Structures are given as C-alpha cells and as structure tokens.
C-alpha cells in the first residue's frame, strides 16, 4: 500500500493558526480538533492509524508544513505496530516537515513497536526557517515483551536554513549489537526528542541512562534508553525537564 | 600504495603515536564503573558495539576526508564537512573527545606529513574532528586510500578502549589484545562499506549512532565532576 | 617528533588573505610564549608543596599558571586553591589515562592542550609550572613539553635515591632534595645524598631545602628567575 497524507497550517490575518490543507490517506488519517476548542492560536491535529500498518510492502508518506508564525501540535493516538507483511521489501514510512520563519511544530507520535520479522525503515526530515521551533518525539520499542524484534533503520535529519543540526540513524541490528554496552546496552526501548526551541541548555544534563545535550549548531536532544517503555518515558521526561523551557515542554500544554 | 604510505597508516594506528589517544577510554571507564565490563569477553562485546556505532561513523568520515583531501578540497568544503560530523555527534562529551584527539593528531601529523590539504583543513577549524584529520593526513600526503583511513579510524575506536581496560581492570593484556583482533572480519566490513560512500556529498554520508554509548559518554563527564575519572573520555 | 623545538623545517606559508584565524600550531616568535617548567619526582616527595611555594614567591612578580597531572585530578588543584596561592582559573588539571609518565613524556598532547587553555584564559601568562603525577625514578618530561625540568626527591625516600640514578636524577635541569629537616629523624645521611647527587649529575645543579625552614623556596625561585631571564626558547 502506498499512501501520502498532507497537512499544512498557516497563520491567518487575525494571527490564528488555521489548517489550510488536510489530506488524509489511509492508513494516515488526520483529525483536526475544532478551533473553538483550541482557542485558535494553535492548530491541533490527531494522527490516527486507521488500519493495521505499516505492513511489509507499505510506503507511507506524511508531509507537514507550518507557515510563518503558525503553531501546530500533531499528536499520535495509539502506538504504531510495525509488522511483517505478505510483500517483500519491508515497510517504509517517511515524514517530511517544513517549519517557516517563526513557526512552531510539536510532533508527538506514540511509540513504534517493532515486532518479530518486521522490516521497517523510517525517516524524519525537518527543515526549519529562521526562529522556527520544533520538537519531535520518537520512542522505539524493539519487540514486545519477550519478543525478538525484526530489523529497523530509522533516520532523523534536522536542518535550519540548510545548516545541519542533527543527523542520526539508529540500526539496532542483531541481538549481539543490542546487547553490547558499547551500543544499546540491552535496552529494549530507545527514546529521543530533538528540541529546537529557542533557548538551549547551556551545558549537558544527564542521569541514569538519560541525557539532555546541546547540539553543536543549535538545538538540543533529550534521549533515554530503558528495558521498558514506562521507564523510558519517565527518563525522557526527566531529560526534557532539564531544558530551559522544560516546565513548558514537560506539560504538553495544549 | 607507496612504502611510505603503508608506514603512515601504521604509524597513525600505533598506540605510540603521540596524538593524545592514550587519555581516552571511549566510554570504557564509565562502563567499568557500572560493572558492565569486567572480563575480556565483555570487553570484546563492548568493542563490537562500539565498532558498529562510533567506529563506523569515524570510518565513514575518515574515508570521505581521505578522498576529498586527495581531490584538493578547500576551506569551505571542510567547514561543511565539520558541521556534518558535528550534526552526527549529539553528545558534547563525544564531540570534545573527537576534537581533542583531532587537534593532537594534527599537531603530531603536521610535523610528520605536512600537506596543503592539512593546511586547508586547519584554516577551516583549529580543532578538527579526529576522523577528519586521519583522513586528511593520509589523503593529503598521498599516503593512503579511503579504505586505509577507514580501517585506521575503526581500529583506533577499538584499541583505545582495549588499552584502557587493561589499565583500569588489570585485564590480561593478551586476552584484551585478542578481544580486538577477533573483530578483524567485522572491521574489514566496516572499512569496506565506509570506502563505498566516499563520493557522496557530506550531507548524505551515513550517520550511524549508538544511543547507550552516547549516554555513557555524558555520564563519564558528569561523574568526573562528582568524583574522579582517570580518562578524558 | 623531535623533542627540541628548533626543528629543521619550514612550515608552509598560507597566502590566503581570508584566513583570519591565527595558525593554530604556530606560536608567536621567541619569548612570546610562557616558559614551561616541569616538576617531576616520586609520590610524596613534595612536588605540590614546592609548586605552592613557587606560586607564593613568584606570583607577585610574574603572571603564572599551573598544570597538574595528579592521578586524582583535583587533589593538587584543591591544595593550591586552598593554600590561596593561585586562583582556580589559573590551574588546569590533566586526565592522564592512568599513565602519568606517558602524559608528560611519550604523548604530551593533553598537557599541551592544558597549557593552551591557560594561555587562552590568561594571554599574559609568562610562566607555566607543569607538575607531573607522582611516578618513579625513570619518569622525565619530554623537551617538547618542558623547557626546563626540576626533579624532586626527599630525604624520607631514603638516602640511596640519588645513587640509584635514573633519568630524573641524572638529567633534570635541577635536582631538589626536599625535607632536609627530617634527615636526622629518618636516618638519612645528607652528605652522602649530596655527594651522590653531584657525582651522578656532573655540572648540573642540586638544591637541598626544607619548606618547613624556608617556606618560600628562595633558592629554587632564584633558579626559576634565571630561567625566565634566559627566556623561552623559540619553537
């Protein structure tokens, strides 16, 4: 199955963030919340997985644009289960994001669970304009409890006006690599949240298997690993709270 | 390859090369404090994971730098190259460790293998990343191929940690050495893959990561402030 | 790399006028960088106490900084800070990877970086004292790191130490025999120590001192002043 969904949010003449384009493509169903309930200053859209996906052979593409000065919260509703399918070549999902000058995006999907024999490739590309802000959460669960996960390659690219801020690919590989203290240290859950959010932490903050680090060219990343999703989320939240705007970011205020 | 070329590669990989590598454990010191590496087998597994994240990234950039240095890359290119490697190194502790070794290697390498390519790189940044310097020293002097540079970078990602394990844990040096050499076929594959990407634009080069190792690197710095760590990384 | 800095080649000249950054490895002309004096010697011989004494005596005359290689990095720095002889930002601690002799001799990168950091913070610094971690009698400073070096032994270590020789005792630019006030109590024969030291060292100077009796280390300070007057060698 191939699907391409689109979402575009812009600032109208009153300064409200309005959804200009919204094109769902099953299984990527986009459900906007009525402006009356959000107050209009920001748009809230829920991403609902409307079928069992991604399956092997699926190619899912989501394109998001946040116009100058606009604000969008895109939130996931349920965990995504990456499953093997009947088609060869594994499943692919890509999310392309553009945030224009002064725009804000919060992209907070639920976790992705990599099941046995799944072959999943995921890519997130974010291009930021001047003073644009964004946070994107990624929580990967490598197999359900007791399950040996399939294969995964997930890449994140964040650039601002052409300058690379963050590029990283996670390929947890085989059991040996996952078990290595020099790689994943037997973690089953890997959580990451790049935050290009105005101010950055002046110095790294870290704790037991989590950290919040300033990036070289601006922005920061909160990250955590854990044996289970609850612990990973708790550690990630702790890292996010270390941000200068941590109180605001930890609240998930919208 | 010329005879001097082989020597340059050997000298850069030598633990006696005075480029500052001996004060970096690459996360091993922190791993020993957590008790996750105590025996030679655990060291070998630590190194395996290190090779496939940090080692592979270093190999990719060392290979690409060799290629670009041989092709006469200028200051603007090296600025972009540097930014791309920074973007792939989210942990400030790892960036610092890489740049400290890069500067040390450049300091020593400049005396041994001066080249206009190295001057171009240092004009772009006084503290280049370690992998970049390794590549430029080999490529800029015509003394090595991208694959050589990749192999040296990947090997150095292992040998420093192995040496630290001997010093910190008193491991049997023969066992620690074997833990490195057992990864020979793995290292060859990493170097080969790295050499395959050399023509790519720096933005498109692979970006392998190792989340747990990044966290160990940050924890090392935090613990150094709280108690004492003998190694700089 | 050759140990001496009068290396026999020319660095390539960069003609690019847009290169604004100073060449990172091209120190300014002779005498324009601080003199680097290494202080080495066995554990407990009084290196840090001597460093503190020199800071106290010379600190008023000249801008100085200290690089410490102590195995437990902050220990010596804390001592100097608490002794009130030096501000914390004039002290750099080096992590030696559990190999203090390597860091001052075989691979001096971490120490050179520390000196550079001091210079960046204090461009006017004229003297850097590099204190080694306590090591054995074979540990000496590379000439690439220290322009001159002092080897510190003490009478409590036994009066046989100078006779045992080793590169520290025989080749250091200055040998200091510390804690001579304790000689009687530990049964050390000062005459033997001094004559052995001179026999092993030929013309090279030896100073016997007690920081209890002369807490400002006047003789060693005078030797450092001479070195300063001679200037730092060109690189």
Folded structure, characterized:
The complex is a heterotrimer of chains A (254), B (233) and C (235). Chain A is mainly β and 254 residues long. Chain A has helices at 35-38, 175-179, 229-241, 246-251; strands at 2-11, 17-23, 28-32, 43-49, 59-66, 71-76, 80-82, 91-99, 104-108, 112-114, 119-128, 133-136, 138-142, 151-160, 163-170, 189-196, 205-207, 210-214, 220-226. Chain A has one domain. In chain A, the strands form 2 sheets. In chain A, strands 3, 4, 6, 7, 9, 10, 12, 13, 16, 17, 18 and 19 form a 12-stranded mixed sheet that branches. The longest helix of chain A has 13 residues, at 229-241. By secondary structure, chain B is mainly α. Chain B has a single domain (3-226), classed as Orthogonal Bundle (Urease accessory protein UreF), CATH 1.10.4190.10. Helix content of chain B is 70%, strand content 0%. Chain B has helices spanning 3-13, 28-33, 40-70, 75-87, 92-112, 116-124, 130-140, 146-169, 173-181, 184-196, 211-226. The model of chain B has no long low-confidence stretch (mean pLDDT 95). Helix content of chain C is 34%, strand content 14%. Chain C has helices at 47-58, 74-82, 100-106, 109-121, 161-164, 167-171, 183-186, 190-201, 218-230; strands spanning 35-40, 64-68, 91-93, 127-131, 148-154, 174-178, 206-208. With 235 residues, chain C is an alpha/beta fold. Classes of the chains: A mainly beta (254), B mainly alpha (233), C alpha/beta (235). Chains in contact: A-B, B-C. Chain A binds chain B through residues 155, 163-171, 173, 176-177, 179-185, 187, 190, 192, 203-204, 206, 209-211, 213-217, 221, 223-225, and chain B through 27, 31, 34, 36-37, 42, 45-54, 83-84, 86-93, 95, 161, 203, 206-216, 218-219, 221-222. Chain A: Belongs to the UreD family. Chain A: This is Urease accessory protein UreD.
